[in-house]
């Protein structure tokens, strides 16, 4: 059965997880300015639940918004000032943790082009070889925060590119959005996957259950996408995702098949094996190559985008494996067994 298409309607607001996210939720619900203690942003953990949820909520205003929240709040100056302050904390934390990261494209991407001999730390390898259906369901619920808007953040870079880079980026995005067929849009394919796994495919449904390490992975691409100054980093992020997608998707397709998840669940990842293998070549040689011809000074930003993606994906994988190794849910609250 094909899942209903993810509609344009925004999801419901969730409850906050601390002073800053509480302030954002209250402001969005009441139409007022966010109120928080002076210095609270500087004191907050940039990786914590409070900051990451607050950022996610503010970024979501640029996607589909929320039920009963005025669309005009997208450009509310008080909300934007708070977002800017939290973005500065987030970006500083990223740059601090990546102070020794490569600054050239070749050095940043070289390790990603070779399949590791030891896959013991690979989450997709774990799911392929010994994952259980409940773990596949949790993984899908987590990833739904991005995959139900797959490729949307990367579209923001298109008007900021020219020539080869723009043409190649649009060609890849054309595939991501179904090549003119609504039922092939990758977000729709993921909604079908969720239906096979007895999950609710409604856009944003599992936000309240998503922990900070997952929110950070989505916030990263939203931050890069919304800032023209981060266009190089967004290209680096996009290239990193495409380069690493095909091997992981192959393992996840096998995991879905082994656990009997369903034809649509397997198809989502099988589709990405072939498509992303092609996209990897195009993004490296044409998108990055073209951008470096046009703006060679963006090389360090491209490398940073790649390194930041690897860092946050590793943090998320560690969070999930630590929970599963202790037989706990990786979600903030476990899924109901339907």
- The SSE order reads HHHHHHHHHHHHHH
Low-confidence spans: pLDDT under 50, at least 5 residues? none
Structural category is: mainly alpha
- Using the alpha-carbon principal axes, give the shape: globular
Rg over CA atoms, rounded to whole Å, is 19 Å
Largest sheet: none
Measured distance between first and last alpha carbons = 17 Å
Classify the oligomer.
single chain
The number of distinct helices, counting runs of at least 4 residues, comes to 14
Helix content: 55-70%
- Hey, roughly how much beta strand do the residues contain? under 5%
Mean pLDDT: 94
Total DSSP E strands: 0
Task: List descriptors.
338 residues; globular; 0% strand; mainly alpha; 14 helices
Q: Would you kindly provide a written description of the structure presented here, covering whatever features stand out?
A:
By secondary structure, the protein is mostly helical. It is 61% helix and 0% strand. The protein contains 14 helices and no strands. Helix 3 (49-60) packs across helix 4. The chain starts with 18 loop residues before the first helix and ends in a 13-residue tail after the last helix. The model has no long low-confidence stretch (mean pLDDT 94).
Write the layout of secondary structure elements.
Elements: H1 19-30, H2 40-43, H3 49-60, H4 77-97, H5 105-109, H6 123-129, H7 133-147, H8 152-155, H9 163-176, H10 186-196, H11 212-226, H12 231-258, H13 263-294, H14 299-325
Helix pairs in contact: 1-3, 3-4, 3-11, 6-12, 7-10, 9-13, 10-13, 11-14, 12-13, 12-14
């Amino acid at each position: 059965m094909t899942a209903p298409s993810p509609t344009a309607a925004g999801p419901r607001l969730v409850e906050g997880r601390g002073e800053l996210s509480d302030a954002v939720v209250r402001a969005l619900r009441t139409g007022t300015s966010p109120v928080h203690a002076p210095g609270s942003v500087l004191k907050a953990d940039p990786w914590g639940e409070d900051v990451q949820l607050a950022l996610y909520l503010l970024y979501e205003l640029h996607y589909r918004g929320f039920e009963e929240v005025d669309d005009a709040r997208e450009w509310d100056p008080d909300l934007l000032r708070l977002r800017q302050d939290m973005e500065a904390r987030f970006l500083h934390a990223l740059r601090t943790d990546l102070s020794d990261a490569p600054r050239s494209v070749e050095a940043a991407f070289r390790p990603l082009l070779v399949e590791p001999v030891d896959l013991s730390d690979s989450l997709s390898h774990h799911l392929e070889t010994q994952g259980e259906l409940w773990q596949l369901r949790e993984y899908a619920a987590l990833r739904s925060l991005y995959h139900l808007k797959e490729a949307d953040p990367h579209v923001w870079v298109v008007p900021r590119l020219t020539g080869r880079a723009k043409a190649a980026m649009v060609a890849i995005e054309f595939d991501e959005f179904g090549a003119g067929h609504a039922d092939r849009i990758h977000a729709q394919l993921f909604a079908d996957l969720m239906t096979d796994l007895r999950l609710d495919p409604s856009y944003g449904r599992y936000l309240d259950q998503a922990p900070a390490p997952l929110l950070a992975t989505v916030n990263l691409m939203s931050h890069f996408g919304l800032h023209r100054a981060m266009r190089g980093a967004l290209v680096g992020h996009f290239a990193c995702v495409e380069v690493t997608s095909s091997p992981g998707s192959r393992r996840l397709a096998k995991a879905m098949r082994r656990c009997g998840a369903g034809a649509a669940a397997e198809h989502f990842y099988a589709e990405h094996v072939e498509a992303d293998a092609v996209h990897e070549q195009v993004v490296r040689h044409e998108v990055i190559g073209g951008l470096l011809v046009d703006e060679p000074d963006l090389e360090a930003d491209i490398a940073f985008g790649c390194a930041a993606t690897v860092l946050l994906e590793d943090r998320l994988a560690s969070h999930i494996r630590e929970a599963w190794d202790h037989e706990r849910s990786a979600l903030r609250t476990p899924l109901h067994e339907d």
